[in-house]
């Protein structure tokens, strides 16, 4: 959830291009593979299953070269193999999936720990090669046009004596899984990235059976045509070079018994599955919602928590918390929404591989520096049925929760002394783009905000209860994504401010931490949403909903707003900084920057939404002409009010679009209802009706009136010209010089006025 000063321009190249070419080391030559192997020996291999790993002995020279070039960045398990595929299984359908397990440079920051997609494939042997063909049903345009798409090809190994001497060897095709033609496009296809990556070295290792198939790892190193500018920050001096480990799986194709897709509602409440052509419909497509094959009487879907959680649990800082229990509650808490047991969570054993395609894994990373959690999943591209999922959760959530929360007065446990050293973070590189990157740093806000907690007193909680509830909330959110639910930023609109009021209707909202610790179960929206998605109810959710794309059109659809009146909440935040600006003796750069950000947030309600006039009136309420200086205000108040009014109006009309923030950048409305108060303010500042308006503000008003290109603005400029002309003889010194320049600017704006 899925901040900081991140550069996202190339953050996916290490992930998105590495497996454009899954395997191999450059261009392949036609014909069978011939390698220099160690002396032949008998193989203790039984050729019975569809896929069989055939051990191979790599020469000392080859092994030394690989180890030298990989430089210890990715692990060599020492078990290299050929892959034998039963000829009778070649035409069957198989799920071919990929998971980026390790990546250097950058690791999880640059895309590791993510599922890269699934294809439905079959195999064809021709001319000494084994071709991999994408055979999903999505691309069939009509009964006539149903294309076959080649995605990879491997040279067939024919001269490996130890294999050839095995019984039934003639019933198998032997390939080197690290010697493909670099045509496998899971990552590039799913992420629409065209960056080329040239594999230099690659080998396969860790072959092992999984449910309905097999899995193995592909270790690679190579070079991209695009340099990663932040590679050096991750101890990689060559920005073009990357190494990693890819988890690959081949599993027999099957669809869940009785699985029925759910059509996407008009509001996109759910994650979209894979689009498919509607056969014989002229290219029209259908995109259902993705979901599991969940139904009453089913066997619960197992989730495994990585055993790293036990090591973190043993840390003296965190021994007071039930970490396993908190995480399990986040997974299994969704069972109450369904009304029967759907999910169950356990801590995995030491051999748990989070890249295995047949496992759903909550990766609890001991890293205290990664600032976000995220979820991702794997679907059957034919049906959009979810086949598996994973959640990534770093220890930073625990660290900051431990640092942030204390026991409430009256709670039955004293807060223990802090043993946590100050957290030191160095952000450099990227912004992950997953289903959800929940950023822990955004949730803690600005330490200079000066805003008291708006959390009304509720039942006192101990620090232990708060930290555990905090982790549970994060996991509930991410598991909600793996069930198919999108963000619902309208959840907080239900909160009425009362002590027992519901803080949010959805755990899929982004809520403040004080509220997160109160949401330890799916909200009423979540219950309605999953029950409709999974066919348990026929009525769509009735609670308010807005999601990521709505944040660009509706300012009420926002994060961390904690109220049923987002504008008032946003304005109150702005006013805190505005008051500091008006009264502080010395304005810091940080205050200027923060005030600029908060100005954009309030002006978002001016540029879009239904509260445009109210938003404009309220943002200038303290500083518009004629200015009312509060009793006891410091001497700088009037000049600061003039400057703040200038900044707001300049940001609204004159500053470049790039200064307006990243979301709401539209021009201000031009309706008569909106323009009336604006003209009154601009005119009042230009005419200096309260005697506190400076030259800079008045000059800006001339530019704004020129931009309006309206008769009232033209008339105001003419009137200002006449007024200044009459005043000029009585002015002296700096005031006269500034008035002369202002008069010249007005004359220029009027000559001519209309463009």
UniProtKB/TrEMBL annotation:
<dbReference type="Pfam" id="PF16313">
    <property type="entry name" value="DUF4953"/>
</dbReference>
<dbReference type="GO" id="GO:0008237">
    <property type="term" value="F:metallopeptidase activity"/>
</dbReference>
<protein>
    <recommendedName>
        <fullName>EcxA zinc-binding domain-containing protein</fullName>
    </recommendedName>
</protein>
<feature type="domain" description="EcxA zinc-binding">
    <location>
        <begin position="461"/>
        <end position="535"/>
    </location>
</feature>
<dbReference type="InterPro" id="IPR024079">
    <property type="entry name" value="MetalloPept_cat_dom_sf"/>
</dbReference>
<dbReference type="InterPro" id="IPR032534">
    <property type="entry name" value="EcxA_zinc-bd"/>
</dbReference>
